[in-house]
Amino acid sequence: MKTYYDPSDLSLFETIGKDAPELARKFFDYYGAVFAEGALSAREKALIALAVAHAVQCPYCIDAYTRAGLEQGCDLEELTEAVHVAGAIRGGASLVHGVQMRKIAEKLTL
Amino acid sequence: MGCPQETQAQTLPGDIEKFSAALKRHGLKLDRGRCRILQVNVGLICDLCCRHCHLTAGPHRREIMSAETMKEVVDFARRCDFELVDITGGAPELVPGIEGFISDLADVIPQLMLRSNLTALGSQERNDLLSTCVKHRVALVVSFPALREAQVEAQRGSGVWEKSLAMLHRLNELGYGREASGLELHLAVNPGGAFLPADQAAVEKRYRRELQRRWDIVFNRLFALTNTPLGRFRRWLETSGNYDAYMGKLAKAFNPTVVPGLMCREQISVSWDGYVFDCDFHLAAGICQGEKRTHVRDLSAPPAEGTLIATADHCYACTAGAGFT
Ligand code: SF4
């Protein structure tokens, strides 16, 4: 293995079921149900997935949900805004923990 | 002149099964059902140069149907028992004599449909065409690929957005797209790149809601169409390095259940110079219907039920996912 990530590995995702078929089936059934059109449209779910993909920094998911977003008729403006949502939540999540830091620091200092 | 039955197959990436082999693997064959629809391509001239055009139509094209060929097509329609004529291009709006052609066809066929790109239909000189369409209750299928200006113009050219919206308003004013008017307005939506269209029902729902809310525009139905790897779109796929992956995607999405309902099974396409093809895509690829190139003037009837249809690898675009309507 020359690199940890290979784009062609995305299409091999299903092989993850090879040595644990029952668990894989449960996961893929659940996965399929999550992304089916429901109270949220498939388009909205693709944008959420794209934002989450950036938050967890998964290159496979970024690839898959950029494509899914385009297929659902999203344009670059919408896809970019979704990435900013991830950025804002990630940044905000770090900053909001600053409250804990401040409380602890205040408790410990004279 | 003989007809190539598997053109372009040699250019398929090695790991992708040929379309004919995919059919065979599923125990299917592509043959004709009852021929109900006559599709007429009246010319390759167009005011736009859309990047997904499988016919490479545009302002530079000079191929248009002559008055004599129009007459031969009407005579053919009269000899046969078609239920619908589907007039397409290029931009049919730019073909001289199109109004007379529509009126003559209306005398012999119960239902007519015209594919329009909205910008050509919107030019001032086409008032006579619009009134002809209203008079004969011609259903309009218009291209409107996205709900955002930048996306529409990237695909269809600058200035198209405003003109398209203005024309949709005008069509609504004439009664097109309004319930009970009897004037049908359908939208045709193509993906803006090397990917498949979204689920048609979901796209239709979103377009209906957004067009109504933002611009007070209504329509009857929406068709989400897969881009076919031919013509200008194919050249773009090749030069952008997307061809292999796109063909792989289409082949992977092959859906055997849509084969019995493919449009080529119940329609025949006539080119601007009067020759017959199984469909508009075969027309673009030069794959003629039957054993040899045949002109409508020499045909007494459409191909009989059971006649085999030539397949090509661009057929994958018609069978991907939910299939081509
Ligand atoms: S391209 Fe589509 S419509 Fe034409 S013959 Fe192939 S399957 Fe039929």
Describe this structure in words.
The complex is a heterodimer of chains A (110) and B (325). Chain A is an all-alpha fold and 110 residues long. Chain A is 67% helix and 0% strand. Chain A is built from 5 helices and no strands. In chain A, helix 2 (42-55) crosses helix 4. The longest helix of chain A has 21 residues, at 76-96. The radius of gyration of chain A is 19 Å and the shape is extended. Chain B has 325 residues and is α/β, with parallel strands linked by helices. Chain B has one domain: Aldolase class I (TIM Barrel), CATH 3.20.20. Chain B contains 12 helices and 8 strands. Chain B has helices spanning 19-25, 67-79, 98-108, 119-122, 127-135, 149-156, 160-174, 200-215, 231-239, 243-252, 280-285, 316-319; strands spanning 37-41, 84-88, 111-116, 139-143, 185-189, 221-224, 267-270, 276-277. Chain B has an 8-stranded mixed sheet with strand order 6-5-4-3-2-1-7-8. In chain B, helix 2 (67-79) packs parallel to helix 3 and helix 3 (98-108) packs parallel to helix 5. Chain B is globular and about 50 Å long. The two termini of chain B are 31 Å apart. Chain A binds chain B through residues 37, 41-43, 67, 70-73, 75, 77, and chain B through 146-148, 150-151, 189, 191-193, 195-199, 202-203, 205-206. Iron/sulfur cluster is lined by residues 262-264, 278-279, 281-282, 309, 314-315, 318 of chain B. Iron/sulfur cluster (SF4) is lined by residues 262-264, 278-279, 281-282, 309, 314-315, 318 of chain B.
